[in-house]
Amino acid sequence: MLELLRERGAEKTICPSEAARRVAPDNWEPLMQQARAAARRLAAAGEIVVMQGGQRVDPSRAKGPIRLKKV
């Protein structure tokens, strides 16, 4: 995720599915829970923020599509 964010550039966001697709391009859907869990860990470590609807959200409470942004 951090590599994808670096590639994307400052102030840009990624979807956790992009990280899952990077790991398993042909079978990424089963990795989505793990990708969201990794996003929660990175957010807890202060590496990223989780966004929803353009606003920062608590990753443990976010439901539906989220975006990830480098701090």
Characterize the structure shown.
This protein is of the alpha+beta class. It has a four-stranded antiparallel beta sheet. The longest helix has 13 residues, at 32-44. The protein is built from three helices and four strands. The two termini are 13 Å apart. Helix 2 (16-23) crosses helix 3.
Mean pLDDT: 96
Number of helices: 3
Helix content: 25-40%
Q: Kindly estimate the percentage of residues that lie in beta strands according to DSSP.
A: 15-25%
> What's the alpha carbon Rg, rounded to whole Å?
11 Å
Could you state the order of secondary-structure elements as H and E?
HEHHEEE
**What characteristic shape results from the CA principal axes?**
globular
**Physical arrangement of strands within the biggest beta sheet:** 1-4-2-3
Draw up the topology in text:
Blueprint lengths: L1 H7 L4 E2 L1 H8 L8 H13 L3 E5 L2 E3 L9 E4 L1
Antiparallel strand pairs: 1-4, 2-3, 2-4
Summarize the structure.
The protein is α+β, with helices and mostly antiparallel strands. It contains three helices and four strands; from the N terminus they run H-E-H-H-E-E-E.
